[in-house]
Amino acid sequence: MSDLCDFPRLLAGQGVKVTALRLAVLEVLGAAPRALRAQEILEMIRARRRVNKVTVYRILDDFTRRGLLRRLAVEDRASLYELACEHHPPHPHFQCHHCGQVQCLEPAPLERMWAELKGPLGNRADRIDIRVAGVCHKCREMS
Amino acid sequence: MSDLCDFPRLLAGQGVKVTALRLAVLEVLGAAPRALRAQEILEMIRARRRVNKVTVYRILDDFTRRGLLRRLAVEDRASLYELACEHHPPHPHFQCHHCGQVQCLEPAPLERMWAELKGPLGNRADRIDIRVAGVCHKCREMS
DNA sequence: ATTATACTTGCAACTCAGTTGAATCTGCAT
DNA sequence: ATGCAGATTCAACTGAGTTGCAAGTATAAT
Predict the structure, then answer these.
(1) pLDDT tens digit string along A64-103?
(2) Which of A62, B37, B77, B104 has a Cα-to-Cα distance from A14 of 20 to 30 A?
(3) Residue A78's closest chain B neighbor by CA?
(4) Residue range B64-93: average pLDDT?
(5) What pLDDT digit, counting tens, does each position of B12-21 carry?
């Protein structure tokens, strides 16, 4: 998940004012190798500057509604966020029952499944989330 | 989701003591046409008898760990619970962005997708959740 | 029957992840 | 400079679930 996207342009395209904080949210997510919790995003931004958590939550929410981010519901209480720009297409996720870590999987299977599900559902559906769960490599080695 | 399952036997098979409350949880879920939130389960049991919410949460948690129930993470904060017995095999779900309702879909597509994903992941994975999202029929008609 | 034990349920207080509403600050247009 | 809209902050709140411990209940041992 390297950041190849032009974030200022992405924001401008949405008619959203480009602010330092909004860019910071996108940059943090663009640099992360996996989907992040709001709390993690907050801490990463705080390594650089002062921020209020409410602002970050509002930005995440706004971006998600605009389709700039995807919000993933996972086994834990906190949701995860990931970029939804053209360089970060939807993909399945793998979550470890043991440590809770969520990894991104290749997008390919999702596309095939999407085609398969979309038929029966007609045009009612606009999004598919696939979460596979099990025990990850690290956790398996430990036991 | 009619209840064809012998709940007392199901519990006994797990070495779990059969209590009125545990049966009530299974019966409520067995009678429901869709996955339910803990809050809903609580209210449905309360229509019949007095219960403490902690007890219900503990039962749901215990049953989920034992594999008697599946817990679904959805767009909203509260998770949903559904029976995981042989008459209620895993299946995809459809959630409406607008009203939040979650419907159960046919199990068939899930099985095919499972086969497809499990290959690349090896035997690390033991569960697949597919959540399709869009706008449901009712909500679409209203707008 | 009586006591001991383990398991189940209940209660109060708490945590965690967000949310709300109102106040303040900032950049831009007049 | 002044006004305004939008961005950010702050404090307080909500809702869903959790924790620790007390009380109740069933089963087993005496």
Answers:
(1) 999 999 999 999 999 999 999 999 999 999 999 989 999 9
(2) B77
(3) B77
(4) 96
(5) 999 999 999 9
The answer to whether the CB atoms of B124 and A116 lie below 8 A apart is no
pLDDT at A122: 61
pLDDT of B122 = 61
Asked if residue A95 and residue A52 are part of one domain, the reply reads no
Give me the CATH number covering residue B53: 1.10.10.10
Q: What is the domain extent for residue A114?
A: 89-143
CA of B57 to C1' of D18 (A): 9
Asked whether A5 and A83 are in contact (CB, 8 A), the reply is yes
Question: Beta B80-83 vs B93-96: how paired, if at all?
Answer: unpaired
**Closest by Cβ to A74, choosing from B73, B94, B135:** B73
Close Cβ partners of B76 (under 8 Å, ≥ 6 residues apart): B100
B99 and B63 within one domain: no
Q: What is the CATH number of the domain that holds B110?
A: 3.30.1490.190
Number of domains in chain A: 2
- Closest alpha carbon to C1' of C10, residue: B52
**Whether residue A74 sits in one domain with residue A18:** yes
CA of B101 to C1' of C19 (A): 21
Q: And the tokens for B92? A: 């995809």
| pTM attached to this predicted model | 0.93
